[in-house]
Amino acid sequence: MTFEKTKKLANGSIIPRLGLGVWQVKDGEEAVDSVKWALDAGYRLIDTAAVYKNEVGVGEGIRKSDVPREEIFVTTKLWNTDQGYETTLKAFDESLNKLGLDYVDLYLIHWPVKDKYKDSWRAMEEIYRSGRAKAIGVSNFHEHHIDDLLTTAEIVPMVDQIELHPALTQEPLRKFLAEKNIAVEAWSPLGQGKILENATLVEIGKKYNKTAAQVIIRWHLQSDIIVIPKSVHQDRIKQNIDVFDFELTEEDIKQINQLNKNERFGSNPEKFDF
């Protein structure tokens, strides 16, 4: 199966299919090094968020790299306490300022805060029209959240970033998003490391001389999922992008799909304590 290393979003923006997530990465040296190592290794998508409190380090890592800004796809996210129309506009300015950038490539609503995400989205649409966010989307939105948002939205979200890994394959939600032409992006794509010992994944890896993590990342890619594994170790960062020289068979994919247990390792958007 040949596929592009990038994906075209509904508005024509081009997003890399594989990037670096920086959740729980400490601001300062750890964030700077992780981002620089990733860009040196060939990553072109960096995913952060206001609540990660490492936007400053991420921006510095980008500037310290030799990769031109226009070749890097930068995502950040609006935190729950900043939701609402005016507060979203202010929070976005703060994120841009911390990153030290003129624009981001993707801005996401981090969680569906009831009675606030519609006003937040109105501000996101304004930010998008200004060109300071090249694409806008949501994170942790279920079908009913998207349907509700679309009752007032003028622009359909281009991305929904959700918890997704072989123990939580999210197939009904993925099907729904595909019908709406909303790209699926996975957070905690390796199940926070809790599924790396799984015998099926390990065995499939042995066939290709790859780790379970590399098998999972390849499964995401072949399933049309944008994937952002996190690491602060240079060798692991390099290993996670070394997934373009092998291909899982249909049988491999089927076996991995069957590992689904609808098991979350992160928060459930229906029960999140906003």
TrEMBL record:
The record marks K77 as: Lowers pKa of active site Tyr. The active site is at Y52. One of its GO terms (molecular function) is oxidoreductase activity, acting on the CH-OH group of donors, NAD or NADP as acceptor. The keyword Metal-binding does not apply. Keywords: NADP, Oxidoreductase. The keyword Oxidoreductase applies. Pfam families: Aldo_ket_red. Belongs to the aldo/keto reductase family. PANTHER family: 2,5-DIKETO-D-GLUCONIC ACID REDUCTASE, NADP-DEPENDENT OXIDOREDUCTASE DOMAIN-CONTAINING PROTEIN. This is Glyoxal reductase. It comes from Enterococcus quebecensis.
